[in-house]
Amino acid sequence: xxxxxxxxxxxxxxxxxxxxxxxxxGKSLAKEGMKFRFGGCLSKCQDCELKNxxxxxxxxxxxxxxxxxxxxxxxxVHHGEVKVVEVEQIPIETTASxxxxxxxxVITLEDKECEYVDCEYFxxxxxxxxxxxxxxxxxxxxxxxxxxxxxDLKLVKLK
Length: 159
What we know:
Blueprint: E1 9-12, E2 15-18, E3 21-26, E4 35-38, H1 51-54, E5 61-75, E6 80-89, E7 92-97, E8 106-108, H2 122-125, E9 135-144, E10 153-158
Antiparallel strand pairs: 1-2, 3-6, 4-5, 5-6, 7-10, 8-9, 9-10
């Protein structure tokens, strides 16, 4: 019988830091500090014996390579070889309603329904990989922003 998988976390001064995950990425991409968005597993990966190592990350989330190991494997997707790397999930920087943002709390992120694509905060209100209607943990609360459509919003970092 296999033991239950637990979410590994280290609590420091009320901030939650998730421990590194191990995955495989293309050899040319395997550099410390490299950031990438995991888009999910490809159909080519379904028959690979290393699928669980590659596909164990959370889909549409951003990660940063924190360490590169020496081990390499052959890969159909990366046209050659992949390297074993340690990664950490990067917090999502976005905006949320000022009324609902408390550090350490859980919020459901709602669409801001904004059409001002030239706004300096548009990329924060609609960051790549965010899913509206999904629950996120607030890791950090930032400053209030000047919203063009008059909403009371603050910058937040989510996990």
